[in-house]
Amino acid sequence: MTNKALIIGSSGVVGSALAERLLAEGWSVAGVSRGRTASVPGVRQISADLTSRDALDAALAGVDATQVYITAWSRQASEEENIKVNGAMVANVLAAVGPAGTVRHVALVTGLKHYLGPFEAYGQGAVPITPFREEQGRQDVPNFYYEQEDRLFEAAARHGFSWSVHRPHTIVGFAVGNAMNMGQTLAVYATLCKHTGQPFVFPGSRQQWEGLVDVTDARLLARHLQWASTNEAGRNQDFNVVNGDVFRWQWLWPKLAAYFGIEAAPLPAQTSPLEARMDDAPRLWREIAQQHGLAQDDVTKLASWWHTDADLGRPMEVITDMTKSRKAGFLDYQSTPDAFFDLFERLKREKLIPA
């Protein structure tokens, strides 16, 4: 059967990796984004406002997708607003494409805040015992991920398609202008340290430095999305998605430093978040971009200090169980150091960091 994908958020870190994967597999791919960054070559690009039902109805008219992947969200000032806006986005997309009857499966990407709670109540509730498992369910706290799921479940029942929910940990992957991208943020931070001679200080908590953790390569997540949307074992299921290895930042941090030819500083006595230390980063990055002929001189298009601070500043262990996917037949694995180094090499090829 012909597979025709519609990717919501096609220029983001997840959506672009998924588009590259599906195009390489011979799929037809259409993508919806805000149009602020370039899409993957080969994607039929559609610009639309996900918060407007009328705009989506018009933009998606005639799109006969068989699989829909929702990889986008919009950060709001409060979780109440996150719930309202992001739930409506999912509902609007599925109301636009569902009635045509061509959709066989819809995959929704959320994340581990399903277990940890939203940013404004992060880890404040009864956080489940790690490793996180799908059977642990929802927390008793408002969370826009739950609203997105509920809108997905309603549309699936109404229009007769299957669904899957995918919960990655911190995503490492390539995307310009993405608000949640630790890999690129650390590459920019290391480059700034090399340029200024400042120490490469881990910006997170002692718990994250010393404890076990895992992450998700965007390429592995793309393979997981494709698998779940085309296999019976992925129908109407929720899945955690991580690389399959675990590590400690105190082990990986010196390896990242060595890649960039700098020294890893000892863990400071007090947590040292990036956002508070990056006031001069825009000016410094313009200097670096001019000196090395980089393609992007706006550091805010490459780094998201606040999100990396949130991930690395957690006061609790966060690791994830993949047994459910393994038992269902998804056996892929990704080395986490390779995930970072592959990304750094691509950033060099794309002239986004110095070679």
UniProtKB/TrEMBL annotation:
It comes from the Bacteria. It holds the Pfam family PRISE. Residues 59-354 form the PRISE-like Rossmann-fold domain. InterPro entries: NAD(P)-bd_dom_sf, PRISE-like_Rossmann-fold. SUPFAM superfamilies: NAD(P)-binding Rossmann-fold domains. This is NAD-dependent dehydratase. It comes from Pseudoduganella armeniaca.
